[in-house]
């Protein structure tokens, strides 16, 4: 007996210590946010709110998928009050799993347009991200460009660069194309893209734009804020944005948004924070930090963003991106879009 | 005291159920996710499975096999040859390379991946420069390719093989080689017929670790957009929202692991290895010819440059460009990385020690099976493992809470096992148990029964036996286990991300914040910090290893 005890006592000691440390983790009055929006893009917002309202905020960042699984596993015990993502499909999925609660708020319903929030009030978009065409000013004339479908045409054979289909932005884009054109037509479009690829899909938008600038390809699809960031660092790159599908549905948009969790221990404070996020000052800051478009139509975007000009946005409710996401992923599997 | 008494005492302990219970508890974190996966695989969801088996499985199976074979071969050869050179032969710079070749352990695979792609891809500095100077870079091999992934993963992972092969050669190689040569074998024949076969279990164990790392890797293959089982699991789970499909894929992945494992075990089958106890006598080193000496130098220098020096330089250059990101919070990131890695090292080494002792005392088939299964956690993608643990942990938490309420009424404290450091440590235990267990187990194997019996005959039994005899003999193994776990946890990303309590951002989390936004240059700063902090234990390990030699 004594032999075993001698070896295992420290082990149990360590476990007890860990449990002790674990107990220190909770501080009941602090709002807890699970955020797929990264630290550098969200902490300044939290800090501002804390300074204005005295409400302290703790947060955990991760990709939306794992965060949603974590929320799901924690169930009624979860300490999270708010789930924040950078894609509508993921909010839709969380709501679908019953992880978000309906919030009825005059302020949110007034400030956030209907197409950018859940019809049942379980989530709201706080900024708009546009996914459109970027092209090389050295090798492409803007007249040659039109909509997403045309990128599958003969003109762009070996000239197209895409980001991986694993990224949710592309899954949402294809989902929205399915909503617009139906599955068979969309499959044809995406097949055309794959046939036109100049090189294997990239793991992020920035690499893709650098490849266009370096001459590996001529056109690609990106979220506009990546373009903004890259050009802010290297203003001389021969790249420009083209607003896609202006004679049709309009540019594909997505949101970065949030909802109050189903078991939020601090539901009221969570609602207050979301309402604050829809106010002009927060809206301008939330979108401005990442060069996105504010969700509230009355707020001006950052001057850099404004300089890209106005464009027609797809009016479809972003929730469809979630409903059709699985269909979109399977479609991309079928046509070999990696 | 006679051997009979020792055996009787040991037999009494075997019957004691407490050690069995403890073994099961230690293995549970890894076993529960495995059971969840096995359950899902047995009853597949027909529609999703049809899609996967037609469009996804063929590609990822072939890709995964190619990757496994490529990385196992390349890292196996590089690791073994370098270990051979530094521990058996003499060549310029040998003393330096002996420890320096372990340094790449401190660089996370995903960091090496983004440095390689950032530097070598079409738009990267190398090819851009070539185009500016020579007008074309078309002849440069594509880094974002199967070969590129194999190359990068092998560079990142060869130290596992190197470390273990080096141990084998140091403890037996040179003397065995001398003996073989005395018996009339030529140098080459002695190498092939004696030293390599004797080192095989260690080399195989190193390659098994590399294979498991490769199978579980998500970060590095994502940078290359190379589809493997792991990426397919993530895609089914988070893209198609299908937990069942993800688990089924994980089930197929597990079959791979079990096959790799069986392979490793069978290579050890029947053989029992005891190292020579006379470790103090310095055998003479092989003197290489002038061409071989300098080839050895160039080879070792090349591997070190590609796997460590050049990547670190690139990271430093990027860090200097983004030096403005440094603020006081970095102390917090570093401190939390250290606390997590340190406590994980303590917990996992103690757990490994407990398991190794239980296995030694109760060497039954079922006990060995249990321990083997528990070490499979190393090959399961971190996120799958973490979620597989979170669900039962919440159930356990709620049950405990109910008992507390029944006992204490309304005044009962609120229990929160999930989303705390305990959950993080349990997940680390599930993932890294094998990293700690392997060195401890092989160390304990060298403490032969005759040593125990000799000690017993001198009246040293029980706690004294462990304290006075085993601990000194195991010191190097324990240090190796602790260092490997420490460095692995420093680099670990997915489990830390999903299980950490709010506010527990580490250096690896910091890297993720930047890479997930495509800002590789800004990820360099926390990556450099990981490397530098990880270097401290890596250096300690090599110093320890050095005095064994």
Automatic annotation (TrEMBL), chain A:
State the family named in the UniProt similarity comment for this chain. Answer: Belongs to the bacterial solute-binding protein 1 family.
Quote a single Gene Ontology cellular component term.
Answer: outer membrane-bounded periplasmic space
Q: Which PROSITE patterns match?
A: PROKAR_LIPOPROTEIN (PS51257)
Recite the UniProt keywords alphabetically.
Answer: Iron, Metal-binding, Signal
Query: Which residue windows are transmembrane per the record?
Result: none
InterPro entries, from UniProt? Ferric-bd
| Protein name, as recorded | Putative binding protein component of ABC iron transporter
Is the Signal keyword given for this protein? yes
Q: Which GO terms describe its molecular function?
A: metal ion binding
Species assigned in the record: Steroidobacter agaridevorans
Q: Which PANTHER family match?
A: IRON-UTILIZATION PERIPLASMIC PROTEIN, THIAMINE-BINDING PERIPLASMIC PROTEIN-RELATED
Where does the chain bind Fe cation? 225-226
The stretch of residues making up the signal peptide is none
Superkingdom field = Bacteria
């Amino acid at each position: 007996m004594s032999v075993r005890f001698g070896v295992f006592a420290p082990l149990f000691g360590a476990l007890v210590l860990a449990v002790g440390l674990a107990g220190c983790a909770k501080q009941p009055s602090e709002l807890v946010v699970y955020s797929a929006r990264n630290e550098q893009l969200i902490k300044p917002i939290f800090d501002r709110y804390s300074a204005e309202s005295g409400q302290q905020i703790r947060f955990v960042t991760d990709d939306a998928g794992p965060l949603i699984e974590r929320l799901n596993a924690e169930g009624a015990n979860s300490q999270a009050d708010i789930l924040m993502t950078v894609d509508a499909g993921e909010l839709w999925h969380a709501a679908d799993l019953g992880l978000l609660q309906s919030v009825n708020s005059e302020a949110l319903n007034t400030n956030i347009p209907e197409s950018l929030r859940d019809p049942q009030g379980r989530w709201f978009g706080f900024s708009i991200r546009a996914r459109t065409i970027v092209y090389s000013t050295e090798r492409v004339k803007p007249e040659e460009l039109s909509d997403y479908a045309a990128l599958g045409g003969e003109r762009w054979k070996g000239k197209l660069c895409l980001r991986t289909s694993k990224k949710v932005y592309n899954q949402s884009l294809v989902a929205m194309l399915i909503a617009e054109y139906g599955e068979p037509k969309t499959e044809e479009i995406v097949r055309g893209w794959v046939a036109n690829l100049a090189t294997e899909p990239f793991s992020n938008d920035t690499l893709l734009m650098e490849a266009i600038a370096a001459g590996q390809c001529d056109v690609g699809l990106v979220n506009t804020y990546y373009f903004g960031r890259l050009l802010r660092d290297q203003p001389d790159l021969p790249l420009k944005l083209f607003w896609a599908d202006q004679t049709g549905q309009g540019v594909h948009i997505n949101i970065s948004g949030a909802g109050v969790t189903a078991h939020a221990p601090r539901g009221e404070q969570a609602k207050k924070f979301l309402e604050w996020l829809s106010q002009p000052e927060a809206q301008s800051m939330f979108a401005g930090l990442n060069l996105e478009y504010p969700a509230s139509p009355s707020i001006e975007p950052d001057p850099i963003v404004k300089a890209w000009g106005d464009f027609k946005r797809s009016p479809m409710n972003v929730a469809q991106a979630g409903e059709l996401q699985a269909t979109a992923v399977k479609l991309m599997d079928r046509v070999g879009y990696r | 005291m006679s051997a009979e008494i020792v055996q009787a005492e040991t037999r009494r302990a075997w019957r004691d159920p407490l050690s069995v219970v403890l073994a099961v508890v230690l293995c549970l974190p890894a076993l529960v996710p495995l059971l969840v996966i096995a359950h899902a695989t047995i009853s597949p969801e027909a529609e999703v499975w049809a899609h996967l088996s037609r469009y996804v499985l063929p590609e990822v199976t072939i890709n995964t096999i190619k990757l496994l074979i490529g990385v196992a071969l390349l890292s196996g050869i590089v690791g073994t040859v370098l270990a051979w050179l530094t521990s058996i032969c003499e060549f310029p710079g040998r003393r330096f390379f002996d420890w320096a070749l372990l340094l790449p352990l401190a660089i996370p695979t995903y960091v090496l991946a983004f440095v390689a792609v950032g530097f070598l891809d079409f738009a990267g500095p190398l090819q851009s420069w070539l185009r500016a100077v020579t007008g074309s870079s078309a002849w440069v091999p594509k880094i974002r390719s199967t070969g590129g992934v194999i190359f990068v993963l092998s560079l990142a992972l060869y130290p596992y093989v190197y470390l273990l092969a080096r141990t084998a050669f140091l403890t037996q190689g040179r003397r065995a080689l001398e003996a073989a040569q005395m018996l009339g074998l030529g140098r080459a024949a002695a190498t092939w017929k004696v030293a390599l076969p004797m080192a095989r279990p260690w080399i195989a164990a190193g390659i098994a670790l590399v294979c498991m790392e490769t199978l579980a890797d998500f970060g590095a293959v994502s940078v290359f957009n190379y589809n493997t089982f792991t990426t397919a699991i993530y895609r089914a789970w988070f893209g198609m929202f299908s937990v069942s499909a993800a688990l089924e894929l994980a089930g197929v992945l597990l079959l791979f692991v079990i096959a790799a494992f069986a392979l490793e075990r069978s290579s050890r089958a029947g053989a029992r290895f005891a190292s020579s106890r006379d470790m103090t006598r310095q055998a003479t080193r092989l003197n290489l010819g002038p061409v071989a000496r300098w080839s050895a130098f160039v080879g070792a220098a090349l591997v070190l440059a590609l796997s460590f020096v050049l990547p670190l330089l690139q990271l430093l250059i990027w860090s200097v460009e983004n030096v403005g990101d440094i603020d006081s919070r970095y102390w917090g990131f570093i401190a939390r990385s250290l606390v997590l890695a340190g406590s994980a090292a303590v917990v996992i080494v103690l757990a490994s020690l407990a398991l190794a002792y239980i296995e030694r005392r109760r060497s039954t088939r079922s006990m060995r099976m249990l321990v083997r299964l528990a070490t499979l956690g190393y090959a399961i993608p971190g996120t799958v493992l973490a979620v597989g643990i979170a669900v039962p942990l919440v159930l356990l938490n709620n049950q405990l809470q109910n008992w507390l309420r029944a006992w204490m009424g309304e005044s009962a404290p609120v229990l929160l096992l999930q989303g705390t450091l305990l959950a993080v440590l349990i997940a680390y235990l599930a993932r890294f148990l094998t990293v700690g267990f392997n060195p401890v187990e092989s160390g304990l194997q060298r403490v032969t029964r005759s040593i125990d019996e000799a000690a017993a005959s001198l009246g040293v039994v029980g706690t004294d036996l462990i304290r006075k005899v085993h601990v000194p003999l195991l010191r190097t193994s324990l240090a190796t286990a602790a260092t490997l776990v420490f460095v692995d946890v420093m680099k670990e990303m997915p489990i830390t991300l999903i299980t950490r309590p709010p506010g527990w951002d580490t250096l690896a989390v910091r890297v993720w914040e930047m890479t997930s936004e495509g800002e590789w240059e800004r990820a360099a700063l926390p990556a450099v910090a990981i490397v530098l902090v990880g270097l401290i234990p890596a250096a300690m390990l090599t110093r320890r290893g050095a005095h064994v030699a």
